[in-house]
Each structure stands twice: as structure tokens, then as C-alpha cells.
Amino acid sequence: MIKSTIHFMKIRNIAFAITVLITVIGLFSLFHKGLNLGLDFTGGTSIELRYEHPADLDKIRTELVASEAGKKSEFEDAIVQSFGSSESVLIRLKNDEPNIGNVVAAKLHSIDPNNKFELISAETVGAQVGKELLDKGGIACLLALAGILIYLAFRFQWKFGIGAIASLFHDLVVTLGIIAFFQIPIDLTVFAALLAMIGYSLNDTIIIYDRIRENFRVLRKADLIENIDKSVTQTLLRTIATSVSTAMALIALLIFGGPSLGGFALVMLIGVVVGTYSSIYIAGPVLVWLKLSREDLLPPANTELKDTNS
After folding, report:
1. Of 125, 143, 177, the domain-final residue
2. What DSSP assignment string belongs to 47-60?
3. Which contiguous run of DSSP H or E holds residue 85?
4. How far apart are CA 301 and CA 86, in angstroms?
5. Sign of the torsion angle spanned by Cα atoms 131, 132, 137, 142
6. Residue 233 region, left (φ>0) first, then alpha (ψ -120 to 50), else beta?
7. CA–CA gap between residue 229 and residue 224 (Å, rounded)
8. CB–CB of 109/115 below 8 Å?
9. How many structural domains is the chain composed of?
10. 98 exposed, middle or buried (CB, 10 Å; 0-12, 13-18, 19+)?
11. Phi and psi for 308 in degrees, rounded to 5?
């Protein structure tokens, strides 16, 4: 346990300036470049192949994106990944032509004549279905944020709810800004990572908020800033242990998980870093700006009891 208190709130104004800068950059990147929506949201074709022997995904990907006679390949945006086993391959394309499965199969026959394959299926995902998924996903995020605000308002106090929502808003904007800047394809796994990131960041924030509330009862002579510094310091080792262990698992997924889990692991890794920062330098300062006091946490006075005693 850390014995001396670390004065996090001493640089809260500097941290706020950095937060504003990063958020503005994230919003600019988000609106300027836009999100690179994947097949799940834009529509296209999902092709499943089954090889006799383990397939070489790199060779398949290289063959698909290779240009022909100096022309740009129509399969340049192809996503190639294993599907259940090393012999099963899933290819996803932003192309919904009726015969696209046979075209892809014909293009891949020349890679390795000794490793034959068969075309199992070629399913088309309509753009309308993708739009519905995107709309429902956005509604799910909004409902999750609304539920969080209501929960924190009843569980703690409404000022805590405002701080948590500000922290989560920052996390989403910055993460989406990074995704837009690097044009990371957004599919259902990446979307799941965004929702998981909200839960991870909220968990960190609630732990700090719970300690702040408890310290109001213990540290009766401490002001709010001293309380926040003390609370963050007391939970720091737990935050570091959780963040580092989670990051290690995500890095392993990023390296060894392949393309199917790469997007999920990368977005979650960004969320761990951003969420840890916001739990300290957004969730805490918001309470200072809202002037949270010990009186805000006191239960309402029992007026009936007072009338009886009088």
C-alpha cells in the first residue's frame, strides 16, 4: 500500500487542457475521416472455404489484393481469417455480386495445387441489415449511458453521475477518434469492444467514487481535493494491477489472436489506457468543479421525527 498521498489534483488544470486537446483532435478525426465501417454494417459477401490441409492466410490475402495488369484489385479490402480451424477460411468482401464466391475461388486455385479446397458457402449481407445493426448499436450505447447515469444518481449522488458520464464520453470520443484516424475497420467484434470498454472504465470510476464517499466519513477535516487525492492513491495499486494484467492479456490476443480478434484487442487496449486516465483526471476534477460536499452525501432529514420531538 502507498503510504504517502500523491497529489493528482495539483495538475488537474493541466490535465484538463490535455483532455480538451485530445478530445478536439478525436472529434476532428472522427468527422474529417469518418469511421471505416466493416462488412457487418455496410453489407457485402462472406465466403467460407474449407482446405484439405492448414491454409496459408498470408498467401490467400496476398493473392486476393494483388493487382492485375496494373489495375487495382477489386478484392483490396478483403478480410481473411481462420474460421473454427486452420483448414477453414472465412473471406469477407465489400462486394455483393451474385457470383462473387466462384470468382474468388477461381482466383485462389493457383496458390497451392497440392492443397485443394471447396467453396462451402457465399452469403450476402445486405446494406439495410448493416444499417439496422448500426442504428440498434447506437441506441444500445445511448441506453447504456442513460442507465449508468440513473444508477449512479441513486447509488451515490447526481454529481457522481455527471462525472461518470463525462468520463465515459471522453473515452468514447478519444477511442473513436483513434479508430477513425487509423481507419481501423469496425465490425461487430470492435463494437463489442467499445461496449466492454464502457464497462471497464465505469468499473474503475465507481471504485474511486466509492472510496471518495467512504473517506468523507473517515477524513472529516479533509477538503474535497485532499479526499480525492487520498482516494485515488489508496486505489492506485489496484488500478495498476488491473490495467497491467488486462493489457497483458490484450497484447497476447493482439499478437496471437489473428485478424478476427485483432480489432477487438486493439480497441480494448486503447480503452484500458484512456479509461484509466479518465477515471483519475476527468471523474475526479468534475466533482471539484461541481463542488461536491459532505452535505451532498447526507441522507435527507426525517422531518416527521423532528415534528414529534418538538
Report:
1. 125
2. EEEEESS---HHHH
3. strand 85-93
4. 66
5. positive
6. alpha
7. 9
8. no
9. 2
10. exposed
11. -65, -40
The letter for the amino acid at 90 is L
Q: How many other CB atoms are found less than 10 A from the CB of residue 167?
A: 26
pTM: 0.75
Query: Do residues 145 and 229 both lie within one domain?
Result: yes
The number of residues in the chain equals: 310
Q: How far apart are CA 10 and CA 274, in angstroms?
A: 20
Q: Could you read off the pLDDT tens digit of each residue along the chain, which spans 310 residues?
A: 566 888 888 998 898 899 889 889 888 888 888 888 777 777 778 888 888 888 888 888 888 877 665 566 677 777 788 776 778 888 888 777 778 888 888 888 877 777 888 888 887 766 655 667 667 777 877 787 777 777 777 777 888 888 888 888 899 889 988 888 888 888 778 888 888 888 888 888 888 988 998 888 887 778 889 999 999 999 988 888 888 999 999 999 888 877 667 888 889 999 899 989 998 999 889 999 988 887 777 665 554 444 555 4
Cell of 202: 465505469
Give the end of a domain, one of 125, 140, 167. Answer: 125
Residue 305 resides in a domain:
no
Cell 452535505, residue?
A: 295
The alpha carbon of 250 is separated from its chain's Cα centroid by a whole number of angstroms, namely 12
Q: What phi and psi values does residue 68 have, to the nearest 5 degrees?
A: -120, 120
Edge-to-edge strand list for the sheet holding 117-125: 79-83, 85-93, 44-51, 117-125
119 touches 102 (CB < 8 A) = yes
Q: If you search the block for the grid coordinates 495498476, which residue do you land on?
A: 240
What range does the domain containing 161 cover?
A: 8-37+129-297
Q: Which three cell numbers stand for residue 267?
A: 480497441
Tell me the chain's radius of gyration from C-alpha atoms.
25
Which are the contacts of 157, defined by CB distance < 8 A and separation ≥ 6?
Answer: 292, 296, 297
